[in-house]
């Protein structure tokens, strides 16, 4: 699916209003903060819940979030995506990976940094178990350094997590590859 062609859902069990901020979209405490937090969305802040850009894009498409800017103007999918691309050049691939994993029923949380984009929890394990998988998003046609991949793999192994490459092809489809270290005896 190409950028900007996302359609908003017409039905939803929850509908909240968010404010576009520098790091994503924020909702106030008065709204369903606990409901979203228990489902693995957002980071609790003292005065509400902060959704990352990819979470906000996903919730916007699902019809669960309505976003406005500081001047009270409605923020659509394209505008929100542009804000995200302003802070992350890999925004589109990360959003598509997040959307795909959420669509498969996984709880997806922000990664640990150092090249890991997401932590993925098995279905039903969020809140009880630690994430089993760490996801690194890559795009076809955008090479990554072997040293960077090796560094991320070592980090994942030291945390006893499985590294998964989420490779987005030119059509926006995501293919997942498990990465492990091969050692010869």
Structural account:
This protein has 185 residues and is of the alpha+beta class. The protein has two domains: 16-87, MutS, DNA mismatch repair protein, domain I (3-Layer(aba) Sandwich); 91-179, Trna Endonuclease, Chain: A, domain 1 (3-Layer(aba) Sandwich), CATH 3.40.1350.150. 28% of the residues lie in helices and 31% in strands. It is built from five helices and eleven strands. The protein has helices at 33-38, 53-61, 77-87, 91-103, 146-158, and strands at residues 16-21, 24-28, 43-45, 48-51, 65-68, 74-75, 107-113, 116-121, 133-139, 162-168, 174-179. It has a six-stranded mixed sheet. A hairpin with a 2-residue loop joins strand 7 (107-113) and strand 8. Helix 2 runs antiparallel to helix 3 (77-87) and helix 2 (53-61) packs across helix 4. It is globular. The N and C termini lie far apart (45 Å).
Give descriptors for this structure:
five-stranded mixed beta sheet, alpha+beta, MutS, DNA mismatch repair protein, domain I, 185 residues, Trna Endonuclease, Chain: A, domain 1, globular
Question: What's the arrangement of secondary structure elements?
Answer:
Blueprint: E1 16-21, E2 24-28, H1 33-38, E3 43-45, E4 48-51, H2 53-61, E5 65-68, E6 74-75, H3 77-87, H4 91-103, E7 107-113, E8 116-121, E9 133-139, H5 146-158, E10 162-168, E11 174-179
Parallel strand pairs: 1-5, 9-10
Antiparallel strand pairs: 1-2, 2-4, 3-4, 5-6, 7-8, 8-9, 10-11
């Amino acid at each position: 699916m190409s950028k900007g062609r996302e359609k908003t859902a017409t039905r939803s069990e929850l509908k909240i209003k968010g404010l576009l901020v520098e790091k994503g979209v924020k909702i106030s405490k008065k709204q369903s903060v606990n409901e979203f937090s228990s489902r693995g969305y957002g980071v609790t802040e003292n005065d509400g819940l902060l959704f990352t850009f990819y979470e906000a894009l996903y919730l916007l498409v699902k019809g669960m979030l309505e976003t406005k800017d500081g001047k009270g103007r409605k923020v659509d999918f394209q505008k929100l995506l542009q804000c995200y691309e302003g802070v992350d050049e890999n925004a589109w691939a990360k959003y598509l990976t997040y959307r795909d994993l959420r669509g498969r029923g996984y709880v997806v949380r922000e990664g640990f940094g150092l090249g890991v984009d997401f932590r993925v929890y098995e279905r039903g394990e969020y809140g009880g178990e630690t994430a089993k998988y760490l996801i690194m998003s890559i795009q076809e046609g955008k090479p990554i350094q072997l040293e960077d991949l090796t560094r991320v793999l070592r980090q994942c192994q030291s945390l006893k997590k499985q590294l998964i490459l989420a490779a987005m092809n030119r059509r926006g489809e995501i293919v997942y590859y498990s990465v492990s270290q091969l050692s010869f005896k």
